[in-house]
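Tutorial handout. Part one gives the primary structure; part two gives the three-dimensional structure as tokens.
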Amino acid sequence: MAVRRDYYEVLSIAKSANGDEIKKAYRKLAMEFHPDRNPDDPQAEIKFKEATEAYEVLKDPDRRARYDRYGHEAASAGGPAGAGFEGFDLADALRAFMRDFGGAGGAGGFEDLFGGAAQGRGPRRGQDLRVRVKLSLEEVATGVKKKLQIKRQVRCETCSGSGAQKGGKKTCTTCAGRGQVRQVQSSFFGQFVNIAACPRCRGTGEMIETPCLKCRGEGRLTDSSTVSVEIPAGVAEGNYIPLRGLGDAGPNGGPAGDLQVLIEEKAHELFARDGADLFVEFPVSMPTAALGGEVEIPTLDGPVKKSIPAGTQSGKELRIAGHGLPRLRGRGKGDLLVQLRVWTPGKLSAREKQLFDELGKLETGKAPKPGKGFLDRVKDAFGG
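Part two.
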């Protein structure tokens, strides 16, 4: 089990830090390590989740007090929706970030970074979720159906996502239902008017007077479910499959985002991959290399017989057409490239030693002499 770092150390703040300092420190780390900024960096994802967990505890005065007194175990007892952080995953961290910073305006704000304003009236689209699936080479070759366990925010059916009981909403008194407020700022050059989402109703124009008892005014509930995804043959590391509408439900009854299934590959003990082609090293005995013969070469489809010509040298490459991987967006399959390696036995019986000794005497003077290139390399190696 990994050792959890001190929350103050994670956010690089003093134990006396106030709420604004905590929020500022977290925002800086979250923007730096957000998964959308670091799509191929698993360490950044870990740091993003770690920073969010620390922020969720330290921003809450009661949980912060328990943490200061009892440490991680006490703080975890009051996690989101009454749950601890043992199930705190990337989806939870992204939701927490969007909740507090989804509408952060100004230069360097969230919408500047990810290209979409998260503020405004009415329903909004939910967050996309991401899940990684590791495939074996055999699964890549044939395609596979996978069942995925996901945790997401679904619309509360009791209130239809509104967050309020029937008739439990009223017009926001701060913005008079407009969903926006005007902020006037004075400067040396005069007054500037800034229009922003209403902070009280978060741009909806309405306030909840009587929250829904089931979702407690959120309009959404956390749900764990199993979904199936068909992964086609020929996919590669970094490909992703979008499952429309299987992400988080949107705020205020908005549509759900997507679930992105990111493909990862497990290393194979025998074959290496380059696109649709596969590579394998195959050992050939010295007699077979010298005299030629037939061998069985392993492929993903089963062993294939192949003739080895007499006088084969170590490093010779054979191509077996059509025994690679399916092409994802094309026809046919790639090839299997076989690099032959002449195998030298490590231990010899008395009879084998005798035969090799006789062969050595017969081959005296027949071995190719090193050329100028070989001598140059020897001189370079010894500084000559």
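Part three, for discussion. The CA atoms of residues 173 and 339 lie 76 Å apart. The longest helix spans residues 42-58.
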